[in-house]
Fold these 2 entries.
Entry 1:
Amino acid sequence: MPKTVLLVGTRKGCFLLTSEADRRNWELQGPYCEGWPIYHAVYDRATGTIYAAGASEWHGTTIWRSPDLGRTWEQSSEGLAYDDGGRNMTKVSSLTVDDGRLLAGAEPAGIFSSVDGGRTWTLLSRLEGHPGRAAWDEPENQPPGHLGVPAIIPHPSEKGRYLAIIQGIGAFETTDDFATWTARNKGLRSDWPREFDDVGFCVHKLVRSPDPDRMYQQNHVGMHRTDDGGQSWTEITEGLPSEFGFAAAAHPHDRDTFYVVPLDPGHGRTMPDGKAAVWRTQDAGNTWQRLDRGLPQRDAYLGVLREGMTIDGEEEPGLYFGTSTGQVFASTDAGDTWIEAASYLPSISSVEVAVVD
Amino acid sequence: MAHLRLPPTLPPLFADLPRRLDVDAPTVVAAITKLDERWPGLLDRLCERGPTLRHHIHVYVDGRRADLDATLADGSRVDVIAAISGG
């Protein structure tokens, strides 16, 4: 019988949470990857391999891989570097399993590909030629969070078409397999001066609904929706307690249903008022519902990072998120009620879900 | 032959890599390169492109802080240290 596995990237290694069919009882395995900070871990169902992006203060950036659900691990960073001087890679922010290859979004901003299961890597793009790119790419202009690529999102049916985010710069689309890019930031808000019309937007998270043209975006300033594949964006923040947050998830079968975790927009960046909640819209952002049954409602200053929430593809989808304080929460009723699947993990960077045969 | 001592964080990353081993090499970088031939990818774990030592990796030759170009004599002791950082 297939199992549901949560892949949890933390400040101190990768963990797996496994459940049989009910998705209510979870068994913890780990830590893996020798306690390295893991920023994103994904599962390739075609090969049964787990990949985990690690970045160590001492030993740099590498991609871990396990072909046997965590029993054995190897790592490699061959080719995962910039050849020009002064641009040392600080980490890989995101991994994407993509039809026979693995994509890595790195910081400083670059997209790498591996076609041999993570053993060697080739640089695909640094988004050369975009207005302002020279300025955002200068090492001395890098802010503390750097300007990485925290998302590479394949189009579900069009080969060679992807959306990518560059932190603090915006969303970009390629339709020719990473050769050229078009900014997709029209209609977004920015509360700061920008040198160029189409870049300088702080896109935190993009998720695609089952309708490829319908996507949602958690931005530094507001929630947004597109109905035309990213050609234009409409703000849908009204009704949420905060315009700020990182994590988001789209319902796998309903284009109008979408989940976010609003956070205090100050530097604390935790759930407002110490009360944990996920917020849901079922009408494409016209109205929002607070979902907090089973989540702590007192003294709970939880943060959730951009890869910290995910949703599975079951008929009644399971929704999962991990916190900066090491809890993993799970819901199997569309977010109406929650259980705590893990309580005392290290600070969580990412949660992804896989169905494993 | 120089006597190398590696940080404890390194052997778990490479099959059969010991913490202490002897290497016949004229410089620190040559010694690390020689290890990389036997354990591919080891150079990347200690050095940035260049190569230059990673920020928190320190090397001492016979008790003195050294860089990658430092020369090794027969019997030199080379300590590769993962400096205290993080938490």
Entry 2:
Amino acid sequence: MNLTLHVWRQAARSTDGKFVTYKADDISADASFLEMLDVVNETLIAKGEDPIHFEHDCREGICGSCGMMINGTAHGPMGATATCQLHMRHFKDGEEVWIEPWRARSFPVIKDLIVDRSGLDKIIQAGGFISVNTGSAIEANSLPIPKQVQENAMDAAECIQCGACVAQCPNGAAQLFTAAKISHLGLLPQGQPERYSRVVKMVETMESMFGSCTMFRECEAVCPKGISTDFIARMNRDYIVAKFKS
Amino acid sequence: MELDSKIPPGPLAQKWAYAKSHYKLVNPANKRKYDIIVVGAGLAGGAAAATMAELGYNVKCFVYHDSPRRAHSIAAQGGINAAKNYQNDGDSVFRLFYDTVKGGDYRSREGNVHRLAELSLNIIDQAVAQGVPFAREYGGTLDNRSFGGVQVSRTFYARGQTGQQLLLGAFQALERQIALGRVKMYSRHEMLELVVVDGHAKGIITRDMVTGAIESHAADAVVLGTGGYSNVFYLSTNAKASNTTAIWRAYRKGAAFANPCYTQIHPTCIPQSGDFQSKLTLMSESLRNDGRIWVPKKAGDKRAPNDIPENERDYYLERKYPSYGNLAPRDIASRAAKEVCDEGRGVGASGRGVYLDFADAIKRLGRPTIEERYGNLFEMYHDITAEDPYLLPMRIYPAPHYTMGGLWVDYNLMSNVPGLYVIGEANFSDHGANRLGASALMQGLADGYFVVPVTIGDYLATQMGKKVAADRPEFTQAIAETSDRVNRLLAAKGTRSVDSFHKELGTIMWDYCGMARTAEGLKKAIPMIRELRERYWKEVRVLGGEDEPNQSLEKAGRVADFFELAELMCIDALHREESAGGHFRVEYQDEGEAKRNDDDYLYVGAWEYTGEGKEPALHKEPLVYEEVKLATRSYK
């Protein structure tokens, strides 16, 4: 298939960017979106033009490195997938495709489609862990956990920290990401001792860098792991309880 | 070069306890005076950085990703082994040890493997305490499944994302230490050189991947947890950026490289579908718990799989290995797949594929059970191939996946360069010539949480007052060499992209140093690699500058090192005139089964770098088996 791409090119954070149009010719329907960009990059290199920079690594939808706005939607039209697992068979021959970096003030562009997502790590640093030093753990089976609790925690824990939720949100909020980690840890018995201090620290760190949630729920629609906004409600409940407790 | 494995004295089961009781210690107040560099933050590096910081050391951790949570450990799907014997099926530490040694085709060290089996118990406890949501039974206890090469159920798992969940456990522990100021994190920094001062590893040179700055970092010890080198084949199941540069630069600075030819070709990956393909996707080995592998009995049978009647199918693993069946070890399952495809019985458009069929399992267990066990894997397969594996059997084919070889380390995980520790897939120590499924996560975490944080004290205790500054001539020289290399790549101004060379190298390696190797082929491959490497330095085209984000430049440096490693792999494969595990020399076989030669090759082959363009020197560390009786591996 043949496509016309309009790709955001920006040399550095401090410079202005612009859309540049490229042809993507003879693309296999079985190729992934990133493999399509690989093909385009090979033609650019052959012409002596700087290849399009984009972040990627595992190409199995789990490392969370890749991500771009494709025709205005984070990770493209398919839904519930990372960009690397989006295949060209979901596009039509002759289609025009607009490709942009994640759109959020808290994700500044580093180059082309690469953005700085380090704000998400800072939220984890604020409390996204269970404080247990290596060596001090109890016997694993001495703490039975109901299967349903473990399954719910796993639903939240699947987050790949790609940042699509922030990029798609009209407010640039990181609520879904933050709520997923708070719920993963807060649902499990191991996470109870720090449950309320964790939610306060993480939410306040998040609010200091990202926008606020007004329940558009666009995050849920683009999340590669289909993480539910129910976790945001759960986070808000825990936050209010924590505030009363203190 | 002296290779002393430093295996502690005493009975096998007490060696680790003995060692721990005899290591020199650094007192708690002194720990903060030591700086440790950790390169890589996967299961091994991340766990080590966090744990050493908890102990009180100053840790500097370097990753080339934007966040330490992106390391390729995250992609491990199926599970992690531990000898908990929760299933009451006769498992024990000894059995896990024995299975691992046997699975590795008797080419690993007994002492290291036994320690690994012992520590497997602590890993599960630690992971659960961190909040890793392992699968559970309705009663709330932990669930297990089976993996290849064993007859017990000892694999713990978190859906098909066990690596992700374990890595998040280590990542969160690491982030906690970063917040406490115990770890300084350098993301988007790539290690390009090791710095050795008076024979000791004392620092590294990195490139800041945003600004392009080449910088030195000094420390009292350096720990490499930088993963494996399967990407030498270009197409592999590894992440695109996974590379050999860190361990290769260390090799060039004097660290011995052990068993580079031991590579694992994983039997269940989605077959290649075109030239555009950038990587191969693994389908977890756990699928072999319920999937049945088959090909048509007749060569050239092009009927759709569901049109081929039962009696015209060859369930070749069940036929050849009745007691292990579809759960034969990876090397054996891969070779069997290659064999049936070579006979013209392969399936799919390319003829390089076999079926992994769930029809019987769906009939027996019902679709909901299969969805619960493998749902995300089935989805991934469906996304990639546009075929529904609930209705049609999956097509799979072997692909490079893991490298058992790596830098040589002693029992304490220190290389022959004092102060340089190597952990996880980057070292060679525990898997012999073939790794069993669900053992990589186990090894990475054992090394990172429980081994290196303890053993490193034994070295650091001798380094009091020997701190070096990063302005020493060794550092300035290393910076100059690194910049020179970068500039040479940019200055080549050739006509071909880095990827085009990498693909060509990968094809040579797959054809001559892949699943089946011959002396004749390897002798052909070595000059081909050398010639291609020479052309690479002249004809490669790396656009952009050095002082900006430059992905072509990053790739170019990694591929340059792959070229050198590829040659060493072939040299090692040529020298090892036997078949063992993943190293299959066609000349040495018993009707398709690997034929070892214990009389001549019962050793670790460790190679020493002797200079540019010179033959590497081979050093042998004999393997001594006290507990395990050497036998021909049988899975029949």
